[in-house]
Write a structure and sequence with these properties.
79 residues; mainly alpha
């Protein structure tokens, strides 16, 4: 159900021209941009970004912070 929810949010934002900080997508790709998925193609959290599956490591925190600031910069360009 998590994958279905993430897909619906992505579809909604795309269809309505809305900005999206896609945390699920960020967390499910390694530093090289390779997707981390299970045998059914469902997104999984990259182990390098969390030691317990829920709380971010310093590497995960840096990735999320950079993505957040990049999104804010892109939004600012349109204002």
């Amino acid at each position: 159900t998590r994958q279905a929810y993430n897909d619906l949010v992505r579809e909604y934002c795309a269809a309505h021209g809305q900005w999206l900080l896609d945390i699920a997508a960020l967390e499910s790709h390694d530093d090289a941009g390779n997707p981390i998925v299970d045998s059914h193609g469902m997104e999984l959290q990259y182990a390098g970004y969390s030691s317990d599956g829920g709380h971010l490591t310093s590497a995960g925190s840096v990735k999320m912070a950079k993505a957040y600031w990049k999104l804010l910069a892109e939004i600012a360009k349109t204002r």
